[in-house]
Amino acid sequence: MGKVGAVIVAAGKGSRMRSAESKQYLQLGDKPILVHTLQLFQNITEVDEIVLVVPAADVQRCKDLVNIYSITKVSRVQAGGVERQDSVRLGLAALQEDTEWVLVHDGVRPFTAVEHIIGCLNQAKEAGAAVLAVPVKDTIKVVDQSKCIQSTPDRRSLWAIQTPQAFRLALLQKAQELAIQDGFIGTDDASLVERTGTNVLVVEGDYYNIKITTPEDLPWAEWILKHVRGERNS
Ligand SMILES: Nc1ccn([C@@H]2O[C@H](COP(=O)(O)OP(=O)(O)OP(=O)(O)O)[C@@H](O)[C@H]2O)c(=O)n1
Ligand SMILES: C[C@](O)(CO)[C@H](O)COP(=O)(O)O
């Protein structure tokens, strides 16, 4: 049933990390964060091909990483765009023509459980579109610009959305085209597909699937690597 491509987006600036080195290359254990993520997808049998999207200036650097760590499923190291959404679009265009399903994943989420990636892909194969997510643990408020609380949404309907996000490739490409037409910029891929009226299903993941974003995520990431990730995913 159709080829599966993974688009790993790592073309951001990592400005919230405030580090001299871009966060995707920061060392986690014995290798860069991005390499952990690439190895995760390299080792998933269901994934036929990986397109890696990186800053234009880093294409050769990332080709070297791919070679050094023998990430043989990477078919293309693609220069990214201004917004995450642009990087995803460029990554989708670089997939082989016979690709039917795509997993879009953040290069800085190295700890996704393999069973959750496969669960998300299988759900997308049934429904067309599926994303990993976890129920929020906090009470979330809607707050206006003067820091006044406007409302308290029912927590039972709130989920924190993660990646991978899995789609029939043609569906995500159509959603991308519509977003360009409408000048819509979303912070994730599902938000583009939702606008087409297509249902996107949520697959429950776990709280270890963090996106490494700010400096306080780094010691937490080292802890997950040492105490959780090794035994769950390798
Ligand atoms: N133009 C962009 C922006 C983001 N990303 C990627 O999307 C993922 C999630 O984005 P985020 O964590 O927000 O990364 P950055 O945009 O790099 O971080 P910041 O917003 O702090 O600058 C990251 O792997 C990032 O490299 C991308 O490929 N292209
Ligand atoms: C796609 C994503 O990782 C889902 O949680 C997230 O939306 C990326 O957003 P960011 O604003 O780039 O952190």
Automatic annotation (TrEMBL):
Belongs to the IspD/TarI cytidylyltransferase family. IspD subfamily. This is 2-C-methyl-D-erythritol 4-phosphate cytidylyltransferase. GO terms for molecular function: 2-C-methyl-D-erythritol 4-phosphate cytidylyltransferase activity. It is an enzyme of class 2 (transferase). Catalyzes the formation of 4-diphosphocytidyl-2-C-methyl-D-erythritol from CTP and 2-C-methyl-D-erythritol 4-phosphate (MEP). CDD domains: CDP-ME_synthetase (cd02516). It comes from Paenibacillus hexagrammi. Pathway: Isoprenoid biosynthesis; isopentenyl diphosphate biosynthesis via DXP pathway; isopentenyl diphosphate from 1-deoxy-D-xylulose 5-phosphate: step 2/6. The gene is ispD. InterPro entries: IspD (IPR001228), IspD/TarI (IPR034683), IspD/TarI_cytidylyltransf_bact (IPR050088), ISPD_synthase_CS (IPR018294), Nucleotide-diphossugar_trans (IPR029044). Its EC number is 2.7.7.60.
